[in-house]
Design brief:
143 residues; alpha+beta; TolA/TonB C-terminal domain; four-stranded mixed β-sheet; two-stranded antiparallel ribbon; 23% helix; 27% strand; disordered N terminus
């Protein structure tokens, strides 16, 4: 795959750190999550290249969004987000299955997606609005 297609974000959190926020606090912090694009929408779009990040989530965002039950169980996961770039540079993302049906890492990753912003034109000056990117969100503890 092309370099830049995958952005891998890893945050290492120690087990003794403050646990994540309640779902209510998460909703207040991250706000509304855009509707996930359909498989058909994603399949019919081109992959964005040469894009520029304007904003990405930080460690505090990861700590807030981590599913509480998963935190206490020290469960880890990687969630792939397939995203469409919107007019304002935000992204609307569908989440891949994380393999943990008892936790909701997929929703956590979608909540985190509200923190991503891209320039709406790539480094060549072409619009990337409506194009697709893949973002991998890794929830990992430092051991």
């Amino acid at each position: 795959m092309r370099a830049g297609l995958f952005g891998l974000l890893i945050v290492l959190l120690s087990a003794c750190a403050t646990p994540p926020a309640t779902p209510e606090a998460q909703a207040a912090h991250f706000g509304p999550v855009p509707e996930a694009p359909s498989v058909e929408q994603l399949a019919s779009t081109t992959v964005a290249t040469n894009y520029t990040w304007l904003a990405r989530p930080d460690g505090a965002d990861y700590r807030l969004v981590w599913p509480r039950d998963a935190w206490y169980a020290e469960a880890e996961a990687t969630v792939g987000l397939d995203c469409l770039i919107r007019e304002d540079g935000t992204v609307a993302c569908a989440a891949d299955d994380d393999g943990w049906p008892q936790y909701d890492f997929e929703q956590a990753a979608r909540n985190l997606s509200t923190r991503f912003r891209l320039a709406t034109h790539n480094r060549n000056g072409n619009s990337i609005v409506g194009q697709r990117i893949k973002i991998n969100i890794a929830f990992r503890f430092a051991h």
